[in-house]
Structure formats: C-alpha cells, structure tokens
Amino acid sequence: MGTRARRLLLAGVGILFLVHLVCIGIPLGEETVAAALGEWPGTVAAGAAGISLLRAARLWERGGTGHGGGSDGVDGGAALRNLGFAALAWCAGGLTHGITRLFVSDSILSLTLGDLFLLAALPLFAVGFTRLAPWPGGIRTALRHITDSYVCAAAVFSVVWLLVFSPLYRELGEGAGFLGFALVYPVADIAVLCLLVPLVFMSPHSMRRVVLPAIGAFALITAADLVGAVTRLTGPAVAGGIEHPLKLLGFLVLGALPWLVGHRPGSEPRRITGRGLYRFAPELAAVGAVAVAAVALTVSGLGLPGVAPVLPLAAGTAVLALLVRMLGMMEENATLARMVRNREIHFHELARNSGDVVLVLDRDGGVDYVSPGTAEAFGYRVDDVLAAPVTSLLHPEDLERTKEVGELFTGCAGQGVHLRLRVRAADGTWRHTESTVSLYEQPGEPDRLLVTTRDISAQVALQNEVEHLTFHDGVTGLPNRAYLEQRAGDVLAHRVISDDAAGTVAVVFLDLDGFTAVNDAAGHAGGDHVLSQAARRLRGELDSNATLARWGGDEFAVLVEEAPKAQRVVDLAERLGRVIASEPFQTADREMVLTASIGVAFAETGTGSGELLRNADVALTRAKEGGPGTVEVYAAHMHDKVLSRLELQVRLRRALAEGEFYLEYQPVVDLGTSQVTSVEALVRWGRDGEAVGPDAFLGAAEESGLIVPLGEWILREACEKVSVWRLSDWDIALSVNLSPRQVLSPRFVETVERILAETGLSAEFLTLEVDEEILLDNGGEAVQRLAELRELGVQLAIDDYGMGYASLAHLRRLSVDAIKIDPSFTADLGRDGTVTLLTHTIIQLGRDLGVQVVAEGIERAEQLEQLRAMGCDRGQGFLVARPMSAAGVEALVGGEAGASL
C-alpha cells in the first residue's frame, strides 16, 4: 500500500473514532447516543478487523515469507492469522452480548457465552503477538519473564483497585462478593498486557513498527474493559459510554495494522544483542509498577481506616514472586561470576601454552594483551607489539578485508570472523596467517576483540608449489595439459554467461617435425633442451590474450582467448611455424633444423572445451599427413575422417585375429633372359568377400601400430612359401616391403632372424625393401637397424628410388644391394626427355656402384625396350606379370620357366 493510501486509511480511522466520540455528548432519552448504540459499532469494527487481518495473513504467506519461523522466530503470517482470529472472537462476543441483551437484562452475577468468546480472544491475541515479538528462549528466561510480568500485573491491579474499584467495593456492601465477576475482564486484560509489553522492547528491530500499534490497540481495549467493568457495577454509563469509542478505536487500529505499516521482505530482522536497558525490560516494568503501587498503597493506607482482603492477597503473592525472582537472580549471578573467573583462568592458560598468537584488541586496533608465543612466531618483543596498532603490521592490500571485523561490535557478523592476512614479521618478510576474530566481553569493561592467529606460510608455500607442479610442465616451465584444459573450459563458460564477450576463441596445436631424430642423436637431455628453446621462441610471439602450454611430448598448444578476426589466428599459427624453422636449434655440439606441423580450431557457438581441443588435434593430424611445416584449419569432415580411421583400425585388428589377410606375389624377371628371378610379397585383405588393396589400409595399420604384427605375419607367410618353392629346386628369391614403424620397432632384427630360422629360408634369398623416407626422418637409428640386417645376410633394397631428397648421401652411408626405380619414372619413358635422362642416370649409377637396378611399373612394350637398351637388370609390372596367388606363381614358374616378353 502506498504512502497516500496509508494516510487516507489513517484519516478514516480518526474520523470514525471522532464521530463515535462525539456521540457520548449527544443525549438520547436518559442516556447518550454512544450508550444506546452500545457494543454494536465496536463489534462491527472487530469483525472488519478480523477479516482484514486474515486477508493480510494470506497475502503475507503468498509473498513467500509466512511459512515457518523466519529469522529470530518471527512468523508474520501466523501472527496476523492469530490476531485475526482474536478479533473475530471479540466480534462473536459482542454479537452474543448484543443479541442476549435484547431479551435478557445484563447481569454481573455470571459469565455468559459472550463472555467466554471475549476471554478466548485474549490467548489468541497473545499467541499472535508473540509470533511478531518472539517469546524469550530458555526455561530460565521464560520463568523470569513470567514472574516479572506477574509482579507488574499485581502492582498495576493494586493501583487500579485503589483508584477505581475500592470505592465501589465499599458502596456495594453485602453485594461486594459479586465484584469478582465484573473484574474478570480487567484482571485478564492487565495480566496479558503486562506479559506482552516487555516483549516490545526485546522484539526484532524490523518488527517494531508492527508490534507498537498492536500493543497500543490492546491497551485501548484493556482501558475500554476497565471502564465497562465500572459501568456494569454502577449501572449508568461512565462519561456517556466512553468505553465504546475506546474499544472502537482499538479494533480499528488492529484491523488497519498490516496496511498502515506495510511489509518490507528485504529487511533483515535485527534482535537486541543483550546489552543495555532493553535486556532488562521485564525487570524494569516490574520494578516501575511495584514502585507506583507501593506509593499508591502507602497513600491509600494512610487515608483508609481498613484494607480490603483482596489487597493483601495481591501484595503477598507479589512479594513471594519477588523473593523467587531474587533467589533466581542471585543464583544466576553466582554462576555467571564463576564462569567469568574460570573463563579468564582458562583463557590465560591456553594463550600461554598455545603455539598460536593470541591478541586482545580495542576498537581502534590497539593491543591490550599479547600472548608469549608472538616472539617465537614473528620475532617481535611483547613491548613492540603493544606499542602500535596491529593494523600497522598488516599488508596494505589486506586492510580492506578487516572491515568485516567492525561488524562484530554491532552484532551483524555472527559469532566470529575468519580472515587470511599477510603480516609483516620482525625480519621484514610477509607471513601468511589465518586468524579467527570474535567479540571479547567482560563485565564492567568495554567490548574488545579476541584474535587468534596462526602462521600458515609453510602451508601456503606448499600449496603454491603443488599447484604449480599440478598445472605446469617441469621441462619447459609452461602450463601443462591439465591447466590448458581447465583454462579453455573457463574461457568458454565465461563467454556463455557474459553479455559483452567479444573476439574469437581458438586453439593452435603445434607438433615438432622430426623431433624423434633429436632424441636419437642428442639423447633425451638434449631433446629436453630443444623443447625449452622451442618454448622460449613460441612464447616470444604471443601476447597477453594467448596461453602457451606444453601439450605433451613434442607438442605445444596455444589458447587464443580474444582474437579480433579468425585470420589473425591463422596468421599467428603461420608465424609460430616460421619462428620454429627460422634457425637451427643448438644441442650439445650440433645444430638441429626442425619444422612444425600446425592444426587450428575455432570455437563455434555451443562448442565445449573438450570438443575444441579435440578439433585442434584432428587438424594437427591432418597437417602431419600433409608433410612437414603444414598448417591445417579444422573442418567438420576431418572429424568424420578420423572416426572412420579409428573404425578401420578396430576392424583391421579383428581381421588379423580372424585370418582375413592373404598374400599375392608379383614376379620380378631378368630383363635379359626373361626368367622369373624373384617375387614381391603383396598383402591383400579379404573383407566381406571382396579383395581390398594395401593402399586402403596400410596407412591406418602404420598409424595404429598394427603394422608391426601384420608385417611379421607377412614376412613369415612369404618366407614359408618361398622356402617350399626352393625345396622344389626353383631358383627364386623373395622381396618384402618394410614400413618405418617395423624397422624401428624393438627387437625387429631378432624377429627377422627367428623367422628365417623357423621357415628354413636362407637370408641371402630375402630382400627387404625400405623407402627413402625412413632414411630421411630416422636416419641414425634406421641405418643402424638396416646394417644389423645386412650382417644377417639379408639383402637390402631402396624402394621408389628417386623420390627422396638425399639419396646419394644415404647410399654412401648405407650399403644396399638393389635400388628400385619409382613407377613414375617408368611411366614417362619416351614421353618426357628429362625423365628419360634421369632414369638412364639412375641405371648407370646403379651399375657404377655395383647395385642391382629394378624398374617398377612396366606396362608398355616401348618402356621395356628402352629399359633393356639402358642396361636395366630387372623389372616388374603388369606387362611382365600381374600380382597373383601362390598357385599362379607355381603355374607360371613350374610350367614355363620364363615369361614371354
């Protein structure tokens, strides 16, 4: 309800009261208009008040604040509901009285049904009021409150008796015994009023605007009942029926209560802290009432010849209650005194024996007490600490945190405050501390602060070290994979909830090409040194919006958080690649030239951190397939390709286990004699009844490592077959291709030696073919392995010769028995003069080195003739013979020793 509406409501209440008040001065026969109207206006007002309060209770609860006890036990919805029921009970009592008096004259000799309704309203009002001003907690506190309220009520009744009812008691004479029926309302009202008034002073601060009008309304009703009791005893209406306007005003105020004060759900209830006069509100009320009653009784006793029996009864019971109360207070005081003394003794003992620093501070931070452990913890003398405010020892950046401590004096900070602060030690270093600050109260002394401080510098240092080790790489000092994953998640989550997120988020993956050769040549220590150099180069190219991390092995990752354009990220990736290849890396006494393959992925709407990093890794895989120094930007089809590759690898493992692979053999013939001299073993996959060539699956097998067991199976199968043929007196040899992973696999040489021994094939009839690529990327280790194979007597051949970049150098380093001319040279013979010249040069080079030359891919007769003219030793291709099964080789070699060329 707005301010204007409240003012109008208040004006309406005042007008109704003034109109009814005027009615006590308007005569109507032998009585006034107010007396003639009787209880009807008040009854109607009580009913309206009940409806108003119940409706307000529903609105309160609908607002979400009325269910259950709120803070400090306040339950506004239940309070208004009980007050509404009390108003309706008053209304029911008034209606019953009004209807009854139409037929029966009023009597003070008994309590009617209407009186029972009116009496029932009192406990309902008391219950509703205590939901706004909660009952003091604890049995002792409640008992003290009740006894104080009784003393107050007895004293107030004594005064009212002397001033109002004592003369009537004397005038009634023999009928004075009926006075008790008339006093039921006043006595009950006074008892409830004295019980509730002290609760006003102890109520939550936010409820004061509600409880004050409520207790005021009840005080008006109590006054009206007192006047009404006098009227019932004397007959004529007192002051023209003044009790009726008073009761009307009380009910109007009660009904308007929730609308006049409103409800502020955002306000926090604030209770009295237990200090000051508010704490002793019941005692003060009782003492004040007893003092007034004592004066009144003294004055009355001096002027009256006799005293009524009820007065000694009230005074005697009040004295007994006071004695009980005094005994309880004495016991409480003794207990509190013992607790205070014991607390002080325990406090000093704990402070003396504790390893923590214990301080007692005043409001301004001055030190009143410091424990002996301070010198040991921070190196200060006790006098040094007492000389200056403790705030002078705190780090300036941490002073802002101490503002919460001031709230302890106002009761807003709860039981205590926990702080982590940096404190300057005597040697000038800053120590990390953990402190607990609470209010320190002593009777008769100002409130101070009790501070317990512990030095946690070692713990903080350990936490920092653990955090650094957890999220940083030990070789390069860069953040590691775990940190980058967490940071990427935080950045993307912030973009989701932030309205002002700008720029592009991207991840760049970078892999050092040929890094394995660094480890082989310089050892792992040298490799770590190269990684550190690479990290420094990469870090120098990045700004504050990018996070560089070591992803693992020789891979680095860059999280770009706010790039203005996607092209800037691609430019950055290319710049990182250039800085890696810009100059050689120094390791030990050699220089290593490296390049970098780079994959880039951008965060789209809804992209998670895991998906973003995976996309960058997929792009890097594609870049590595493209060759050294390639930069690839992620596209959706890359992921599909990777999934297909993974599915193929799984299928290949199952195919190897279930024996789905088989071999075909392509004959190699002597171009001079047209005789089959050897066969090259070629693997095929019988997938679902269809023959699948090696180009479709060998790449996946190499990538997954399956090429090692597959290559071993191929070698064993082919050696067994050729060994059988040689036992049949066929002069035929075997050629088998090797992959880089096979050659570099552990114990590969031992595997070849074992297969030769088990199959019975002589090593001189086995030729193992390798590509030039293996010599370029893994030169040192590969040359050593191949040299060990030659020591076994195995023949070596370089396959696809002429497609590499360092052929002559490697022919010098590694002695080979044959070179195989790449089919691309054979295909252009007679068509391209340069190719023809190169082919002739390769053949001549082989003849000069004493190396056998084999031409691959012979498909046309003119190619064959040119190769013969150039002096090429041997050849293979579809013109000579297509790949065939073992049975086909047996038919070719066994039936007709040569092929017609």
Polypeptide structure, described:
By secondary structure, the protein is α/β, with parallel strands linked by helices. The chain has 4 domains: 1-62 and 75-133 and 203-262, no CATH class; 355-462, 2-Layer Sandwich (Beta-Lactamase), CATH 3.30.450.20; 472-636, Alpha-Beta Plaits; 665-683 and 706-894, EAL domain (TIM Barrel, Alpha-Beta Barrel). The protein is 56% helix and 15% strand. The protein has 31 helices and 23 strands. Strands 15-16-18-19-20-21-22-23 form an 8-stranded mixed beta barrel, surrounded by 4 helices. A 5-stranded antiparallel β-sheet has the order 4-3-7-6-5. A hairpin with a 2-residue loop joins strand 16 and strand 17. Helix 6 (139-172) packs antiparallel against helix 12. The chain is elongated.
State the gist of this model.
This is Diguanylate cyclase (GGDEF)-like protein/PAS domain S-box-containing protein. This protein is α/β, with parallel strands linked by helices.
Look at the structure and name the CATH superfamily of the largest domain.
EAL domain
| Terminal CA distance | 112 Å
Relative helix content: 55-70%
- Give the strand content: 15-25%
Summed up, the domain count is 4
InterPro entries: Biofilm_reg_signaling (IPR052155), EAL_dom (IPR001633), EAL_sf (IPR035919), GGDEF_dom (IPR000160), Nucleotide_cyclase (IPR029787), PAS (IPR000014), PAS-like_dom_sf (IPR035965), PAS_fold_3 (IPR013655)
Organism: Nocardiopsis algeriensis
Domain EAL: 645-897
Domain GGDEF: 503-636
